[in-house]
């Protein structure tokens, strides 16, 4: 993958511009000392024959706006589950979760989904591009699901293609791209609607090390421009791109 | 919303194009299912639903007066005898009633038409009253239509109106046809107009060539004298309600007019009627029924077979939908990841369901478009199985009603087979799906249960159809084995109607002799004979009979069928004589009156085997002068399936009036005779049409066309249903084996051998077969009960047929399961256990 050409606008005092109607532009945390994310005693468990199996146990942590947090831990520690809770993809938990001024733990499922749509972007380990859609169409998909008008959608896709240096690839299908290029498209798709929060689950897990470095560098740029990032990774090298690390073991935060 | 639809449609096209195999199978399956339905719907619409192409057809009403109809009646295709009125009664009601805009009368007419510069042609026309066209509200395409002034007086309306098709076919759409003179049954009539395009009279089953004033029947049908006879019931009547008048109001008013006529005028004319019958006669009422579809027996006679066929094709479509639903569910399982990603990217479930439904509806639309071809084939198949006489007024093309039905069914099937798979495929726990590498989809168990239920349902439906088809096939076989009582395999028949061509009585008799002589001279001809009533053509001619010693009270059943036949009739048709002799050329006018009777006649009238020498009368108790000279066995008379009635035969040469004749030629070369007979007749009179020329086996086949049509079509549809069910079962089992490869591999690794593995797979089949078969048999019993009026020689619960249906389906199911079961035994445990 060519890392050149990925131009992320420098951070301004105004924060990322809202593209989706209703989304709030955010200021850096120096202007807003209240944490962006606040978890208090989050727990998730499954019933078993002889009791319950806990996946997350009394998770309490804060993430400030503009932070770049890495969640690490052995397999089965609950990392991806925690990411799913943060991204509103999993609603079956107890405890308190506040995202900005929203008390997520008090919201109905439908409202949580809407909140996630408004503020969150997700990057998966396996890219998960839609095979039958071109690069441009994959990018347009999140905007389409947010009822962005066709003209605005087209403009946003063109802008994102340009930012990520993929204009020449806009009509290609995922199978015609390398793994790194596909992950680049996946990252572009995750941020096209200018989310305040980007969640990444093993974003370089299927990439070569050089491709992985390019993706992590891109994350750093996005973070510098104001996007709050929470990533899950096994890689110590990837963790260095973040500002702090949270260790999970057996569902507990251990640091 | 339009933007979303366009996106979804574009994606649906791309997705379907990417899977040509799946798309082709699905579209073909739908085409077969929808097409068969559309074809049968066309028939059903025309027979049961289509209104007349006239303004406000819902305001038309048909009249009937069920009850005793003493005297003579001749029912036609427009209705049963209870719907007949006499001419005087029609005119009385027409004059006195106040709630209808008018009353119209009609009756079918056998027409032989000739015109200068046009080849003669024959067919059916309609006698109509002058009020017929005004009440219907149709307008002439050319010239004018018949009016009340055309039938004001008996036998003075020398005019006719051509049908649109006649004008196009026989007169080249010549606008100068108005004013031309035609000869109809030898009578000169002037063409005054052409009926509008698409109007084919008011009787389904008749496509009239032309319309003639009803008052002209005496001119076109020599020997008819029914205009003043109140005991001669021969016309059908309908009317149009005045604005604001309801059916109930009209009925009350009409009966207020009818009853006094019945009581004061007609009751006194009923000499010899028993008191009980007189009470029933005087209690007769005019019954009004909706007349939007016109008047025809085909509406009632065709109801059960058409509805049955429609139900059968509906079941085939359901099975097809189940197949598509299963295919979509399987594809949905493979798209779980895509659905999870879309949900994670912000799609709502409703949006995804909408996207998947768009794909289903696109499939359905493609299937619907392709189904029009299948619908055309279905209609062609039906047309080929119907005799010409049964197709009058029916069109075997795809019209707007069929297209609309096809579109609606396509839309409906798209929703039916698409909804559950769409709903189920979007029931995804996102993070489980995007992280799971084994591809296990949440809710897989519910999907598997649904798939198995669909296949069980398909098996049930296919079993029911197989059983019903088996019943009709057995019924058809029973019909084919009916003993006709005669040998007609090498007999050719045709008809001539000389009086319609202008022959008088003397010339007619001479003509018949010449024709018989010419036929006897044909190469291969071994016998020639003739009759007035055609064999096995659905005709019934009956009369009361008086026999010395047989009771003669007013309510005694003295009726018998009769036929007037030529010399050597029984020998020519292979009917042996049981006693006495048959007719010869000496049995003609002036010679002693003679008759031959059948065994049923001797049984009914208490005549012993020595009936030969007894006397009968068919003209009243005062002239019992017809001597029985022979007895023959019971020979089928009107219908193959009907019990042979009591029949007496008379020599037509002793009759005073023989306006037409059916001729029979026994020949060693039936196909050759079909070519040579028209040439022989042309040599006698080129202007005399040869009608209804065919072999007797063809005649018999046409007389049982309904049995053949239902038997063949239900078998074809049952075979299609079974094939679709087998495909569905194969699909489910193949998918199940693929999903359980690991489990099967583990079982093999733990010691399971081939037979055990096969039994493991087939256990799934046996469950579906047992439940589906049981439900199917129950369904078959219900269908059989509904169709019992169409079965011959068996009931709707024939155990052998039901058992055979189950057996066939079991064999088909095992056949469909064979490949997946065999594939399961070939699973390599090492590979399977490594596979995720």
Structural commentary:
The complex is a heterodimer of chains A (255) and B (836). In chain A, 30% of the residues lie in helices and 24% in strands. With 255 residues, chain A is α/β, with parallel strands linked by helices. In chain A, strand 7 (197-201), helix 6 and strand 8 (228-232) form a beta-alpha-beta unit. In chain A, helix 3 (135-145) packs across helix 4 and helix 3 (135-145) runs parallel beside helix 5 (179-191). The longest helix of chain A has 16 residues, at 209-224. Chain A is globular, with a radius of gyration of 18 Å. Chain B is of the alpha+beta class and 836 residues long. Chain B is built from 25 helices and 23 strands. In chain B, strands 15, 16, 17, 18, 19, 20 and 21 form a seven-stranded mixed β-sheet that branches. Residues 437-442 of chain B have low confidence and may be disordered. Chain A binds chain B through residues 80-81, 84, 87, 89-90, 113, 116-117, 122, 124-126, 128, 130-133, 141-142, 144-146, 149-150, 189, 193, 201, and chain B through 3-4, 7, 11, 14-15, 18, 337-338, 340-342, 344-348, 351, 430-431, 434-435.
């Amino acid at each position: 993958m060519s890392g050149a050409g990925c131009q992320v606008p420098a951070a301004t005092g105004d924060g990322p511009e809202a593209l989706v109607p209703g989304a709030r532009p955010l200021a850096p945390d120096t202007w807003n000392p209240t944490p962006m994310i606040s978890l208090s005693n989050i727990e998730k468990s499954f019933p078993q024959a002889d009791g319950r199996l806990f996946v997350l146990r009394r998770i309490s942590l804060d993430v400030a706006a503009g932070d770049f947090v890495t969640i690490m831990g052995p397999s089965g520690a609950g990392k991806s589950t925690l990411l799913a809770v943060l991204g509103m993809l999993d609603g079956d938990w107890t405890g308190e979760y506040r995202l900005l001024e929203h008390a997520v733990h008090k919201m109905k499922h439908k409202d949580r989904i809407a909140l996630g749509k408004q503020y969150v972007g997700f990057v998966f380990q396996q890219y998960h591009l839609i095979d039958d859609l071109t690069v441009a169409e994959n990018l347009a998909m999140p905007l389409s699901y947010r009822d962005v008008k066709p003209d605005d959608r087209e403009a946003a896709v063109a802008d994102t293609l340009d930012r990520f240096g993929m204009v020449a690839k806009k009509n290609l299908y995922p199978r015609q791209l390398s793994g790194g290029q596909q992950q680049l498209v996946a990252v572009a798709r995750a941020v096209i609607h200018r989310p305040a929060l980007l969640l990444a689950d093993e974003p370089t897990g299927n990439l070569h090390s050089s491709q992985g470095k390019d993706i992590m560098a891109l994350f750093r740029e996005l973070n510098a421009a104001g996007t709050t990032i929470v990533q899950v990774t096994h890689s110590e090298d990837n963790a260095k791109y973040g500002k702090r690390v949270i260790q999970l073991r057996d569902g507990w935060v251990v640091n | 919303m339009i933007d979303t639809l366009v996106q979804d449609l574009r994606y649906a096209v791309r997705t379907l194009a990417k899977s040509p195999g799946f798309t082709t199978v699905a579209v073909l399956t739908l085409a077969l299912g929808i097409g068969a339905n559309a074809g049968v719907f066309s028939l059903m619409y025309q027979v049961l639903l289509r209104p007349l192409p006239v303004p406000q057809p819902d305001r038309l009403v048909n009249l009937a007066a069920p009850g005793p109809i003493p005297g003579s009646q001749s029912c036609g295709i427009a209705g049963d005898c209870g719907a007949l009125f006499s001419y005087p009664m029609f005119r009385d009601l027409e004059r006195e009633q106040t709630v209808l805009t008018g009353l119209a009368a009609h009756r079918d007419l056998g027409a032989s038409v000739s015109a200068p510069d046009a080849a003669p042609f024959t067919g059916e026309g309609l006698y109509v009253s002058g009020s017929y066209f005004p009440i219907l509200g149709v307008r002439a395409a050319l010239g004018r239509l018949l009016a009340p002034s055309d039938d004001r007086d008996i036998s003075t309306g020398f005019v006719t109106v051509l049908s649109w098709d006649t004008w196009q076919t026989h007169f080249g759409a010549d606008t100068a046809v108005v004013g031309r003179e035609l000869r109809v049954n030898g009578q000169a009539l002037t063409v005054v107009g052409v009926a509008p395009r698409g109007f084919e009279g008011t009787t389904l089953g008749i496509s009239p060539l032309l319309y003639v004033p009803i008052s002209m029947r005496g001119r076109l049908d020599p020997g008819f004298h029914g205009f003043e006879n109140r005991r001669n019931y021969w016309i059908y009547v309908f009317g149009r309600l005045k604005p604001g008048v309801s059916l109930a109001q009209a009925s009350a008013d009409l009966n207020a007019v009818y009853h006094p006529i019945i009581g004061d005028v007609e009751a006194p004319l009923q000499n010899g009627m028993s008191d009980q019958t007189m009470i029933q006669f005087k209690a007769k009422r005019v019954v009004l029924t909706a007349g939007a579809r016109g008047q025809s027996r085909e509406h009632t006679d065709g109801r059960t077979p058409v509805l049955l066929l429609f139900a059968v094709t509906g079941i085939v479509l359901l099975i097809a939908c189940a197949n598509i639903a299963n295919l979509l569910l399987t594809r949905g399982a493979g798209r779980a990841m895509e659905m999870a990603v879309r949900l994670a990217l912000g799609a709502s479930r409703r949006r995804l369901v909408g996207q998947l439904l768009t794909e289903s509806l696109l499939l359905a639309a493609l299937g619907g478009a392709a189904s029009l071809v299948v619908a055309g084939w279905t209609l062609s198949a039906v047309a080929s199985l119907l005799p010409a006489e049964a197709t009058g007024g029916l069109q075997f093309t795809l019209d707007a009603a069929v297209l609309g039905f096809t579109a609606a069914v396509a839309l409906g099937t798209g929703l039916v087979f698409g909804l559950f798979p769409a709903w189920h495929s979007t029931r995804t726990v996102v993070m489980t799906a995007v992280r799971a590498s084994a591809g296990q989809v949440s809710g897989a168990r519910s999907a598997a249960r649904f798939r198995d239920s669909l296949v069980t349902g398909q098996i049930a439906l296919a079993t029911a159809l197989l059983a019903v088809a088996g019943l009709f096939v057995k019924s058809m076989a029973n019909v084919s084995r009916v003993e006709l009582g005669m040998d007609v395999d090498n007999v050719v028949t045709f008809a001539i109607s000389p009086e319609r061509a202008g022959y008088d009585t003397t010339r007619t008799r001479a003509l018949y002799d010449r024709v018989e002589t010419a036929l006897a001279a044909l190469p291969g001809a071994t016998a020639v004979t003739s009759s007035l009533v055609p064999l096995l053509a659905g005709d019934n001619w009956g009369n009361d009979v008086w026999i010395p010693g047989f009771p003669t009270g007013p309510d005694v059943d003295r009726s018998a069928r009769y036929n007037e036949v030529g010399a050597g009739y029984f020998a020519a048709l292979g009917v042996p004589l049981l006693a006495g002799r048959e007719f010869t050329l000496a049995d003609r006018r002036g010679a002693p009156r003679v008759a031959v009777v059948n065994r049923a006649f001797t049984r009914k009238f208490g005549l012993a085997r020595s009936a030969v020498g007894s006397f009968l009368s068919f003209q009243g108790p005062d002239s019992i002068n017809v001597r029985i000279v022979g007895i023959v066995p019971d020979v089928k008379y009107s219908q193959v399936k009907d019990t042979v009635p009591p029949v007496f035969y008379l020599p037509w040469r002793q009759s005073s009036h023989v306006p037409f004749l059916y001729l029979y030629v026994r020949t060693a070369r039936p196909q050759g005779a079909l070519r040579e007979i028209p040439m022989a007749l042309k040599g006698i009179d080129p202007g005399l049409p040869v009608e209804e020329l065919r072999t007797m086996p063809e005649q018999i086949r046409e007389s049982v066309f309904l049995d053949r049509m239902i038997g063949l079509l239900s078998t074809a549809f049952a075979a299609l249903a079974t094939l679709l069910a087998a495909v569905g079962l194969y699909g489910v089992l193949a998918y199940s084996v693929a999903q359980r490869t690991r489990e099967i591999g583990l079982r093999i690794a733990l010691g399971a051998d081939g037979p055990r593995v096969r039994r493991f797979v087939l256990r799934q089949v046996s469950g579906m077969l047992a439940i589906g078969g049981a439900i199917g048999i129950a369904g078959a019993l219900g269908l059989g009960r509904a169709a019992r009026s169409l079965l011959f020689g068996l009931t709707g619960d024939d155990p052998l047929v039901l058992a055979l249906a189950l057996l066939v389906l079991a064999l088909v199911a095992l056949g469909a399961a064979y490949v997946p079961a065999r594939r399961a035994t070939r699973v390599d445990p090492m590979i399977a256990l490594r596979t995720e």
